[in-house]
Amino acid sequence: MSTQQVGIDLRLLGQVRVRRDGAELVLGSARRTAVLCVLALHAGRRVSREQLVAAVWGDDPPPSATGNIYTYVSTLRQLLEPARGRWTGGRLLSSGDGGYQLHVPRDAVDALRFESLRGTARRHRSSGDGPAELAALASALRCWQGDALTGVPGPFADVQRQRLTGLRIATAERHADLLAETGHPEDALRALRELVAAYPDREDLGARLAAARPGGPEPERPAAAARAGRPAGVVTGADGTTRSGPAVDTGPGHRPERETLFGRDVAVRRLRRAVAGITDGRGGSLVIEGPAGVGRTALLTAALPGAGDRGGYRIGWAVGDEVADRTPLGTLLEGVESALRGDPVRRELEHLAAGTDRYAGVDVDVVERAVTLVRRAAAEQPLTLVIDDLQWADPTTVQVWNRLGESVGELPLLLVAAVRSGAPERITGGEVIALGPLEHDPAVALVRAVAATPPEPEDLARILDDAGGHPLYLRLLAASGAGAGSSAELVAAVEAQLSPFTGDTRQVLRAVALLSAYGIRLPGTQPAGCTMGELAAVTDRTVDDLTRALAPVRAGGILAARDGTLAAGDRLWFRHRIVARTLYESTPAPLRVTLCRLYGKRLAAAGAAAERVMGQLLAGEVPLDDALAAWLVEHVERIAEAAPRMAVVALRQAHAQHTLDPARRLVLTAWLARVLLREGQHAAAAAGWVAARTSEPDLAGEMRWTAAYSHERRNEFEAAAEIARTALRERRIAAQWIDRLRLLLGRVRRQLPGNPTEPHLVRSRIMDGEAPLAGSPVTRDR
């Protein structure tokens, strides 16, 4: 069954509804509906499971989130294709490569159809066809049946709801303007009344309606929030604290809620100085750069006011969106629409965008004309343009932005862009404000502000160590109280941040995590990362190939390494330990065991140190079979010298493995006793086990002495003396150990408690290990 043979109609601009061949489908739960909305707005594009989890649950998914996604998708497939066989792949909703894709035409989704009609209207406007533009705008507005994504939960729905609402308002305003221009003022008034009724909190819409009425007053500027001396979107409480509230401006440049910032005071002051400078005629270009989750958006929100006329200058906001249709100049227009309402420049830019072929690439003439228009607007009144996530803006907007940046010093024009580190769309020129990890004190303050209860010192230290100063990871770890281990929300956050990278890059990154895991898993050690040579050995790829695959994650702040081209001996490490831990723990256990066994084998074949190989096997919790035990017997002395703590872990595992060859198990347990003694731990149990089973006099003597000395060191003198006497009496040990045991008895003798019936024993009989028989006469020691 092909998609052309099935009539699918998805309506997201209002209550979410789906019709199949004219029959409405019952979607069921709200989160299942949310999953469908994400897939619909990505129609024709793959969406990873991790993206779906983050879109539906955000930073707090339940442990069952991934399983729920499987269930939701399975149910949606059955709804969309009821005739599909149980074991056949979906054609409307397919899966593969860790994600899902909805195969429907863009016109089948009303939200995408609405955006397409907006583009059609712009093209008619550029050609001067007013009636055709009016018809296209009317058709676009008829796509709406209420608030976008009504009742759909999740952060993705929240962002898209705001974005689409802003586009709806801009479309309705243009529709009303065109009605008035074409001699239909009453229709224009009616359209504005409907808009004000739909969005009563929008002061600017009320002002427009008042101005449109015959004899209506000129709207007062700036908005009420600015008149009250506080930025839009911030509500002051009775206790003097501030919290996020409904923003006055909720158009295309609407920003997310404000949040408390930690450790970004210098950046906030720099941004505010730049905004203040444009009122004095000083322009500039600033680029806020940092990895995903570092707080770029939070910084913009805290430092800059909302869109509109701020009394002396205008400011416009836009957000690059990887989901939105990348219409040429589309992102720039969103910022202009929120800053230049009523300005002829806005209309000229709309004409220019509408006449641009979206499939023809970047048109140099269009770029130059757009630059000229923005410069003209800034010359008339100081202008600030802010674009968050500029890396997802359309290429024409990026080119215009770079060209404007070359001349900001000549005009009161401030450009502020936020971009992800390592983004493919590069911003040229401008002052870069790099957001890196938080320093210790701000990181501690953030953790204490987020944690439900003050963390214990050891938990706080573990959170700081795992997060490495990354604000998002600090928040998640503090909120969940998970200083160690990876909760579901951490898995979702890490996977969401890695999702922009290719499958090949993510696969290599997981190999780095598995190679780094021995430093994370073993107690008392630090993440050691891995060398490029080790990575090449386990992946069977060249160093040059791996360098290319890892370039994006190095640029994106995920991996650290020395600058420049990497050589085989150069080391890679994760900037934030929790990323390595999460990648390790989210790898299914059977696959993890298989990969770590394979990696250990390939490291050994490449000549890696024995302790490196052993660490890899332990990190993967690879079961110790006879083949691995034979290898361990061969290399145990080296491992015990180089990494005694690791040796203890491996040797305890060998001792507990009852199915191993008895001879190998005996040798490895003896080494366990030696290493425990050397490390100051209690070795009596392991040593006694070996002594009871070995037939070699030298090993038996060594183990008897090890057990006795271990007790002596713990001030357990009676136990030490008893082991020594028994060994001396049995006389099955080598001579050197007889001498050492006699010396030990001499040391502990004075610590033994007195015996009322046998207060003194003959020294020679004690030293020979002989005890008096019951009832025998006692000879005093002379």
Automatic annotation (TrEMBL):
Q: Which Pfam families match?
A: AAA_16 (PF13191), BTAD (PF03704), Trans_reg_C (PF00486)
Q: Does the keyword Transcription apply?
A: yes
- List the InterPro entries hit by this protein, alphabetically: AAA_16, AfsR-DnrI-RedD_regulator, BTAD, OmpR/PhoB-type_DNA-bd, P-loop_NTPase, Sig_transdc_resp-reg_C-effctor, TPR-like_helical_dom_sf, WH-like_DNA-bd_sf
Q: Which UniProt keywords apply?
A: DNA-binding, Transcription, Transcription regulation
* Residues covered by the OmpR/PhoB-type domain: 1-104
The UniProt record lists the keyword DNA-binding: yes
Which regions are flagged for Low complexity bias?
222-233
Q: Know the name of this protein? A: AAA family ATPase
